[in-house]
Write a structure and sequence with these properties.
The complex is a heterodimer of chains A (278) and B (324). Helix content of chain A is 76%, strand content 0%. With 278 residues, chain A is mainly α. In chain A, helix 9 runs antiparallel to helix 10. Chain A starts with 13 loop residues before the first helix and ends with a helix. Chain B has 324 residues and is mainly α. In chain B, 76% of the residues lie in helices and 0% in strands. Chain B contains 16 helices and no strands. The radius of gyration of chain B is 25 Å and the shape is globular. The relative contact order of chain B is 0.12. The N terminus and C terminus of chain B are likely disordered. The chains are: A mainly alpha (278), B mainly alpha (324). At the A-B interface, helix 1, helix 3, helix 4, helix 5 and helix 6 of A face helix 2, helix 3, helix 4, helix 6 and helix 7 of B.
């Protein structure tokens, strides 16, 4: 990129600002991340494989990815319902609920973590009635799932909201005037045009849940092989000074998130291509 | 006819009236405006569901948001004040609490200031010039959003830790980065890296380069052009980025937890102290600190909404969920 040439060069400062940007980016992001990958090369492929396929690592990855997927599915469905209510209907407190959607973004994760634990503990406001029904949420995998649903909901809502607002009303009116009933119009006309946005929201919620640490660890119980998420296992390995183990798990998670970025970029290109010319 | 009813909204005229009245009172945001225009424009609303369906969808949305989002927030304040107001304030006056607040403010101030300067510089290079690899560069700037906070901390442990690349050298020269303020600050800068640049780039791209080119051709220097022409144009966007950057910097937990070492009264930030006190069953104290962070989040949201309205008046960057 250092060979990049500014084509529109009537403004000053390209060389200087680009140089500073690349330097700062390298110092803060690129060199530290490269260090992580270099560290894994100190391991032989056999050692790397052994760490990843150990029972505890496999279970942690399974818990993280599996529950994140389940939570992202719930976010997809509930996010769509919330977006629909916020965009299409008028009801008292609509603006307030619209603003509330951002709280999981804004609330520090540790605060969310202790609050959810307090809420769902067996003596908590929601935990007590659930315990009477025989459902234990806090300190079980269900707790992890709940925390992941909490953290992921804004991603689906905020990705789909602008698309639903900008949706051309004429398409719906055309469908309706051609005799489609409302059910058909919604499921055959509106929802299909939201698919790229829905999938983007799903992918972002999934990615966030996989890497999430603060809001999960309090409510999780953190029992190895049962309710121990991958990010927590990294922290545990670090505290045991088993850097190689921590690094190997981190690299796999990092590769997974790169893959998700790639998918999201593709989805957004797809969405762009589908926007009709006005 | 039952099928016909789904095409007719009983309350259409009232809704249209309510919308226009609303319009007159408060300045609408961009998206709301187009929304309303549509509601008013279509005389026979073909675009809604039967009343029972609408009711169920609204009820589901409101219930879900109340249970999953509002209740946790209420629990924070209820638990913080569960032993009364004096217990709350004495928990906040503990030396440990005060030192955590000081450290959080210090780390946030340094990280926000550095990310502010470099975010503006990066946005200038990316938004005002054309070059190959621009999309890739933006992806790199966005990277910290998709990296797990724990990994954001881990990378610095691998560089500066006792077993890390530069650990031995640092130890020999008695330089403390890990388990000290520099490490906490570095991890915070890493996780908040994209905020300022990402809120400025779309805004500056939209504004183009004409005004700056005019200033330059009239003999202004580069810096004069930036401070007199560009900065006034981007001030709300810049404030928006700084606001989100600051909220994340003060609230960051995972990354900071890995590099802090949890030395009491020295390297505990507010979120870390929330964890420690909670694990020691000091619930009032833990939630008292948590309530300060929750208030920060609420203030951030309110200011964010105001800034979004300001930005909408002059066409804005779309709210990108990954910016959070």
């Amino acid at each position: 990129m250092s060979t990049a040439v500014a084509r529109r060069s009537s403004l000053p400062g390209f060389g200087l600002t680009m140089g500073l940007t690349l330097t700062w980016l390298s110092v803060i992001i690129l060199i530290p991340l490269a260090g992580l990958f270099l560290k894994t090369f100190e391991l032989s492929p056999a050692q790397f494989w052994e760490i990843l396929t150990s029972r505890r690592t496999l279970n942690a990855l399974k818990i993280s990815f599996g529950l994140s997927f389940a939570a992202a599915c719930v976010n997809l469905v509930m996010g769509t319902i919330i977006v629909w209510a916020l965009v299409r209907y008028r009801f008292p407190g609509r603006r307030l609920f619209d603003a509330i959607v951002d709280i999981p973004f804004a609330l520090p994760t540790a605060v969310a973590g202790v609050a959810l634990t307090q809420l769902f503990a067996t003596k908590g406001w929601l935990g007590a009635p659930l315990a009477e029904l025989g459902i234990k949420v806090a300190f079980t995998p269900i707790g992890i799932f709940i925390a992941m649903v909490f953290i992921g909901i804004p991603f689906v809502v905020r990705t789909v909201q602008p698309v639903l607002i900008d949706l051309d009303p004429e398409i719906e009116e055309a469908a309706a005037s051609l005799g489609a009933n409302r059910w058909h119009t919604v499921f055959r006309v509106i929802l299909p045009s939201l698919i790229p946005a829905l999938l983007t929201g799903f992918a972002l919620a999934f990615a966030r849940a996989v890497g999430e640490y603060g809001s999960v660890i309090f409510i999780a119980g953190n029992l190895p092989n049962v309710s121990e998420i991958a990010p927590l296992l990294i922290v545990i390995r670090l505290s045991e000074f088993r850097y190689a183990d921590a690094t190997a798990i981190a690299v796999i998670m990092l590769l997974a998130s790169f893959l998700i970025i790639l998918v999201v970029n593709r989805l957004q290109r797809w969405a762009q291509a589908r926007i009709p010319v006005h | 006819m039952p099928t016909q009813s789904s095409f007719v909204t009983p309350a259409t005229p009232m809704r249209a009236y309510a919308s226009t009245a609303d319009l007159a009172i408060s300045p609408p945001s961009h998206r709301e405006a187009s929304d309303r225009a549509r509601a008013v424009a279509s005389p026979k609303d073909l675009r809604t569901e039967p009343a029972p369906v609408r009711f169920v969808i609204i009820a589901l949305a409101v219930t879900f948001l109340t249970v999953f989002v509002v209740l946790p927030l209420v629990v924070v304040f209820a638990s913080a004040f569960s032993k009364g107001i004096s217990a709350y304030f004495s928990a906040l006056a503990e030396p440990e609490a005060l030192s955590a607040i000081r450290l959080t403010l210090l780390v946030a101030a340094i990280s926000v200031a550095l990310n502010l300067v470099f975010g503006v510089i990066a946005a200038w290079a990316i938004a005002k010039f054309e070059f190959r690899g621009k999309t890739f560069l933006i992806t790199l700037i966005d990277l910290p959003f998709s990296v797990s906070p724990v990994i954001s901390g881990l990378v610095f442990v691998l560089l500066f830790g006792a077993q890390g690349y530069w650990g031995t050298w640092l130890q020999a020269n008695n330089i403390h980065i890990l388990f000290a303020v520099p490490g906490i600050t570095l991890a915070t800068i890493f996780v908040t890296f994209p905020f300022v640049a990402r809120s400025l780039i779309p805004l500056m791209q939209e504004q183009g380069t004409q005004e700056e080119e005019a200033a330059i051709s009239l003999g202004a220097s580069g810096l004069q052009t930036f401070f007199r022409v560009t900065l006034p144009n981007i001030k709300w966007g810049l404030l928006y980025g700084v606001l989100l950057c600051n909220a994340r910097a003060m609230g960051e937990f995972g990354a900071v937890s890995v590099v802090s070492g949890h030395i009491r009264g020295e390297t505990n930030t507010m979120p870390l102290l929330v964890e420690i006190l909670y694990n020691e069953y000091q619930f009032v104290a833990s939630f008292a600190i948590a309530s300060l962070l929750a208030m920060l989040a609420l203030i951030t949201l309110v200011v964010k909404t105001v800034l979004e309205q300001r930005l909408d008046e002059g066409q804005t960057p779309r709210d990108d969920p990954r910016d959070h």
